[in-house]
Write a structure and sequence with these properties.
heterotrimer; A alpha/beta (about 375); B mainly alpha (about 280); C mainly alpha (about 300); B: about 280 residues; mainly alpha; two-stranded antiparallel sheet; globular; C: about 300 residues; ABC transporter involved in vitamin B12 uptake, BtuC; two-stranded antiparallel ribbon; 12 helices
Chain lengths: ~375, ~280, ~300
């Protein structure tokens, strides 16, 4: 009799443990996440993923959201629209997520935003720049800057902080380049500078000899380029190789230790507009920088920091609103003065942030703080 | 300024030439499009990178690049191209694509997706000839290319194996009928072409200071346009085509403010040549 | 809806592979630029519905017509050129067409075209399931066109051209006309797929139609069994579904894809369901059917 009782007790305990375990697992709050993990943009995808994982780890170590753990459902979009649409429908239907974080570029973000919007799921976008992304619905929130804002801030920095009067503009022929470049030119002219040259080059361009040779013998104070670190580092190197002494200013595209590595000595003195301030004394910022370096083996970049914030912002929405997607959306719409590591967000206006733009500079081989643009004229996103 | 752009163009063209020669040589003997050649190029770049990181020597990097490329090329010839010789050409094409995709992924998985810097300190000076500046990296590329092409020419024109190469690319069956060891010639073609691609890979890595898994794609596609432009199977045609494309691309960008991607220019040039000379510039 | 989405994509891919089969499988012209015509159809439909406020159905017809016109043009060029050169020429066309989409603001430039409306029937927007049926109808249409071509005199001529161009010409076949016809039909189908794609995604950009996608379509066709319609559909379905099934091994997905292609070509170049493939022969033994007339040259 005792043996049977003992056996039954054992079974009960095991069953109880099993049920409890499953309940705990089921208790996890799922958040969707997508980024280009393979393909030409894989480096940024990896950065975004590492950072998102760091964010989730921090949240779970601190007890999760009201005791429930957060779980990331990660997808690779390969920077392909078809992949993005397929994974979006899967997230919406099969994965039981309460919200999504886009750690990806504009194209996948833009094509999936309407799908999430139709399903009523809130989305936080880390760094994609296309203006249409937030227009998909009232529950799409972008952590990064609009191209217009960044371009205008770049002009403020170039003309007011760096005192440049004759500027050459070299933009990449994609959505980011076009929009930021146009905004830069408009603002710079308004501030009294002269745009001596406007050139555009295709994504993936490696040979900048032809573009820079044209600028070699003209008196130019500053070259503004909206490139990613591959092109940006080549522009810097070639410019110095040709003996061009003008200052170089870039955008968040070159906010990466890779820029320093690939440009070498030519990177010295480059300034760029971005959202991450490496000299920010706040513990969260320095903590993230440390953890990222430990996890990924290289320094953090704008993409990573933005992805970290995008996850944390969504989680904040869940903390306040619970797990009902509509409530999360409302919570984010009412978010005020959120201390993101990429800059304090006063609020979201139609999904766009009002956030100061950091100007960072490369000094002695390191990225340091140079200035901040917080003129409301410049940083308020141009949405009604 | 035009002269300066000419120098820029010739430098770029030299890199294209080294890359495209392997394509044309393989086509010459096997009549197949060696899409995976772009992966051989990238492997050469990584081989050179690894050797440079280990030894700090440019020559070691160049040697390692060429050696690793040759090994890769020979492996492909042995396990992919030769066995598929009797099958329809489209099978070889798709197999080649599979190898290319697979290898790009292997590079990404093993070495990581982010680009590596290949900052080789050059002991060459910048050369000034009047208003024209030939920077040290440009000088390196042009000099190494000229040396390699010179060596190739000597080999093909002056050695019996070189003669066998020319004969086999003209008419494979006839060459076999004359008693030539066609297999050996095919292998030789792969070896030489791959060696050149490996050199191109490490030179591109140095010139643009970046080695990444996807670096082969863009140059690879352009290489295909170039070999058609120059005349498929013709070595001098390919060299001429490569230099031409390099120069034309560069000058167009400096004159016209119309930023079409370089690939598009190369293909447009190819199509333009096609309309007037369907066999390519120096093709048969 | 997830399954419907994947199924709809497979349907669009199938229309593309069937169209490519007409050009490359039936007429033996290797086209490495099929995605360009896909893009022409998509952009035509997108621009007409977004900028000019056309309805879906006339825009669809226009997309097919425009892509076909382009195809006829390329076909006319194809006649001047030898087989291997044609492959690279079509590749070049792909690059140039994508560059045009990317650089001219008329096509949305780098920003692409968004807000493309879906089809409407009787004033109401068609639901996801309805859209899938529409695409399925497209696949049936493509199949029907291919079968008709095969069985008709045009088909016989095309086969003759594929097997031996010179002999065909000697027999009085107007080789030029049939090459152009094959291109036109194949690219018209690509245009159809493009119009579907544009409404389905509601947002297109030049990057969707690049050379890598042309390669993907060709791989699907060869994987399934080039020269056969069943192969075209099978390849589209299998390679359309596989990435979804393999998501769990996301990091190794593309590596697996490349390896599969290589191994398949090495050991079964007829593809999954080609005439000489192990699978098809096993199936045939059960049914006692003959060889598909379309596939002979690819064994």
């Amino acid at each position: 009799m005792t043996r049977v009782c003992a056996l039954m007790l054992a079974i009960l305990v095991a069953a109880g443990g099993f049920v409890a375990g499953r309940a705990a697992a089921q208790d996890a709050i799922k958040i969707g996440f997508f980024a280009p993990l393979t393909g030409f943009a894989a480096a940024d995808g990896a950065s975004a993923k590492h950072s998102a994982e760091i964010a989730v780890e921090e949240i779970n170590v601190a007890g999760g959201i009201k005791g429930r753990k957060v779980e990331l459902v990660v997808y690779d979009d390969r920077h392909d629209s078809k992949e993005a649409v397929a994974l979006a429908t899967k997230l919406v239907e099969k994965d039981g997520v309460v919200g999504i974080v886009s750690g990806s570029y504009s194209m996948p973000s833009r094509v999936t935003a309407p799908i999430f919007a139709k399903a009523g799921l809130p989305v936080t976008v880390a760094y994609a720049v296309h203006p249409d992304v937030t227009k998909a619905g009232p529950c799409v929130f972008r952590n990064g800057f609009l191209g217009q804002v960044e371009g205008a801030a770049g002009a403020e920095s170039a003309v007011k902080l760096l005192k440049a009067k004759r500027i050459a503009v070299l933009t990449i022929k994609n959505d980011f380049g076009l929009v930021a470049g146009a905004a830069f030119i408009e603002r710079a002219r308004k501030l009294g500078a002269e745009i001596v040259s406007e050139q555009q080059y295709p994504l993936g361009e490696k040979e900048f000899g032809p573009y820079l040779t044209k600028l070699k013998d003209q008196p130019i104070d500053l070259i503004y380029h909206t490139s990613y670190y591959n092109e940006g580092s080549l522009i810097a190197r070639k410019a110095r190789e040709l003996g061009i002494k003008a200052l170089l200013e870039g955008t968040e595209g070159i906010d990466s230790p890779k820029y320093l590595e690939l440009a070498g000595a030519a990177a010295e003195g480059t300034t760029f507009t971005t959202n991450l301030n490496r000299d920010d004394p706040r513990a969260e910022v320095q903590g993230f920088l440390r953890k990222y370096a430990a996890k990924a083996g290289t320094g953090a970049d704008m993409v990573g920091a933005s992805a970290y914030d995008a996850v944390k912002i969504l989680v904040r929405g869940i903390e306040v609103g619970g797990t009902d997607p509509k409530a999360i959306c409302g919570a984010l719409q009412n978010l005020r003065d959120y201390p993101a590591i990429t800059g304090k967000i006063s609020k979201f206006t139609k999904g766009e942030v009002t956030k100061p733009v950091q100007i960072q500079i490369v000094r002695d081989g390191k990225i340091r703080s140079f200035g901040v643009i917080d003129n409301p004229d410049v940083i308020t996103p141009p949405v009604q | 300024m035009l002269l300066q752009q000419l120098v820029n163009g010739l430098t770029v063209g030299s890199l294209y030439a080294l890359m495209a020669l392997g394509l044309t040589m393989v086509y010459g003997v096997l009549r197949v499009l060696h899409i995976a050649h772009a992966a051989v190029f990238t492997l050469g770049a990584y081989g050179g990178l690894w050797a440079f990181q280990a030894t700090g020597s440019f020559w070691a990097a160049l040697a390692a690049a060429m050696a690793s490329a040759v090994l890769a090329g020979l492996a492909m010839e042995r396990w992919v191209y030769w066995p598929l010789l009797a099958k329809p050409p489209i099978a070889t094409l798709i197999a080649s694509i599979g190898v290319f995709i697979g290898l790009e992924e292997v590079f990404r998985i093993v070495a990581g997706p982010q680009p590596y810097s290949l900052d080789v300190p050059l002991l060459l000076p910048d050369v000034r000839v009047g208003p024209v500046l030939v920077t040290a990296p440009q000088l390196l590329v042009i000099a190494v290319t000229a040396a390699l092409l010179g060596a190739l020419w000597l080999f093909i024109a002056r050695t019996p194996l070189g003669l066998a190469l020319r004969a086999t690319s003209q008419d494979r069956d006839m060459a076999a009928a004359c008693g030539m060891n066609v297999r050996r010639v095919v292998t030789l073609n792969f070896a030489l072409g791959s060696a050149l691609a490996g050199a191109a890979g490490v030179l591109v890595g140095i010139y643009y200071n970046s080695v990444s898994p996807t670096m082969g794609g863009v140059t690879g596609y352009k290489g295909l346009a170039i070999i058609v432009l120059g005349g498929m199977g013709s070595i001098p045609g390919t060299v001429l085509g490569a230099l031409l494309v390099g120069v034309v691309e560069t000058i167009l960008i400096s004159l016209v403010d119309f930023a079409l991607p370089r690939d598009a220019w190369a293909f447009l040039a190819m199509i333009a040549v096609f309309l007037f000379r369907p066999q390519g510039l120096l093709g048969r | 809806m997830y399954i419907l989405t994947v199924a709809t994509f497979c349907g669009i891919y199938a229309i593309l592979t069937l169209g490519l089969n007409t050009i490359t499988g039936l007429a033996g012209q290797i086209s490495l630029g099929h995605a360009a015509f896909f893009g022409v159809g998509a952009y035509t439909a997108a621009i007409l519905t977004v900028s000019y406020r056309w309805d879906f159905w006339p825009a669809l017809a226009a997309a097919v017509a425009t892509a076909a016109a382009f195809g006829a043009l390329i076909g006319a060029a194809a006649i001047r050129v030898r087989e291997d050169f044609l492959a690279i020429t079509t590749m070049g066309v792909n690059f140039v067409v994508v560059a045009v989409f990317l650089y001219f603001p008329f096509f949305g430039g780098a920003l692409g075209i968004g807000g493309i409306p879906g089809p409407a029937l009787f004033g109401r927007e068609v639901a996801k399931s309805g859209f899938f049926l529409l695409v399925a109808a497209g696949v049936v249409l493509a199949l029907a066109v291919n079968l008709w071509l095969l069985r008709s005199w045009a088909g016989l001529a095309l086969l003759a051209v594929r097997e031996d161009e010179d002999a065909a010409r000697a027999s009085g076949v107007d080789v030029r006309k049939f090459k152009i016809a094959a291109f036109t039909v194949g690219t018209a189908l690509a245009g159809l797929a493009g119009a579907f794609y544009a409404s389905f995604l509601t947002f297109i950009s030049a990057g969707d139609f690049g050379f890598p996608f042309s390669i993907t379509i060709l791989c699907m066709l060869v994987f399934g069994g080039i020269g056969t319609n069943r192969g075209a559909i099978a390849g589209a379905v299998v390679l359309g579904v596989l990435p979804e099934l393999f998501r769990f091994m996301a990091d190794y997905r593309m590596l697996t894809y490349g390896t599969i292609l290589l191994l398949l070509m090495r050991f079964q170049p007829a593809g999954l369901l080609g005439d000489e493939s192990a699978v098809w022969r096993a199936l045939r033994k059960r049914r006692g059917r003959g060889v598909s007339p379309g596939a002979r040259a690819f064994q």
